[in-house]
Amino acid sequence: MAWNSHLPSRVTGSLDALHWSTESLAAVLDAAGAPPRTRLLTTEAHEIIQGLMAARPEISPKYFYDERGSGLFEEITRLPEYYVTRVERSIFQRHGEAIAQAVGTGGVVIELGAGNCEKARSLCLRLQPSEFVGIDISFDHLQEAMRGLEADLPWLHARALAADITQPIRLPDDLPQQRRLVFYPGSSIGNFEPAHAVQLLTQMRDMLGAPEDGGGLLIGIDLPKPVHVLQAAYDDAAGVTAAFNRNVLAHVNRLVGSDFVPDHWKHRAIFNSELSRIEMHLVALSNQQVRWPGGGREFLMGERIHTENSYKYSKEAFAAMLKQAGFSHLRSWTDEQGWFAVIHAWQ
Fold it and tell me: What's residue 147's pLDDT?
């Protein structure tokens, strides 16, 4: 089902948030006495409010990952319906030696969206890199994970870097340039629109340096599969994914000073067959007025806020995207059912 059935909304407030600059939003937040963290994150606040004020309201999925959201996602990965983590792990178990031979041991591992570093721990045991950099937007959660990684692998020089991977990332100046491996597991590349995904892949390629430096990308992608399997994975019986989706509203409240009531919204996951993607939405259970410093919006019963896409690419389609991003070579490994692929790409 395509996302095209929104009910009309009424925007309220004395300012037009669609045209606020970051500076004017900062002034409004200061005047309204918004929490200090809100005033410090005016760029994020501006982005969030623009999304909420759009004709088709949306919240970027990167705002799922506050401390509670990161914990809920870890719960999701252990659910019986959520095949992604289990199937990806089976690929590394079945093809781990071949992957290590292809990628090479030693060097530097840079994990994007590192989370709890569980996958990095297993990879580093195989590859024995000299350096590891974990990058994540949720710094508190990342710091805790890095402490665990250092305890398990005391020989590894590990560092945490708080950054939004959708923005340019500056790696530590003293990080070795040679044999960098950018590691992006879990199919998160599917959360971005295809054109944006190519931009991110290009940024990953740039992190590797010149072709002669011997770097590469190791990335996971979720392949097309039966719709009932996808639906169950994104709308589990225990309601953990629903709680994860609603929690984004609590996080937004803290970031922009809004007054969403998460329990007034229902989780909904649908498969858009035309675009080959799962879509997650939050559906208003009643007419409700949501306010934030300087403005607000009325949401009518049944209106949706679009919170996530998860594209399911064929290997051929993704290979074309890698080529656009400047990768000339690739090899891949899949599970027995052909549900998931781990791809090694290099220049």
Answer: 86
Q: Give pLDDT, residue 31.
A: 57
Alpha helices in the chain (DSSP H): 22-31, 36-40, 42-53, 67-77, 83-103, 118-127, 139-152, 194-207, 227-234, 240-256, 315-324
Give me Rg for the CA atoms of the chain.
21
Residue 33: the pLDDT is 57
Cα separation, 146 vs 243, in Å, equals: 26
Largest CA distance in the chain: 61
> 């959520």: which residue's tokens?
82
Which pLDDT value is given to residue 164?
Answer: 86
DSSP string over 137-169? S-HHHHHHHHHHHHHH-TTSEEEEEE--TTS--
- Residues of the chain with confidence (pLDDT) below 50: 1-22, 36-40
Residue 37 confidence (pLDDT)? 44
Distance CA 49, CA 194 (A): 24
Evaluate whether 92 touches 186 at the Cβ level (below 8 Å): no
CA–CA distance from 253 to each of 66, 239, 248, 286 (Å)? 12, 22, 9, 19
* C-alpha–C-alpha distance, residues 221 and 14, integer Å: 44
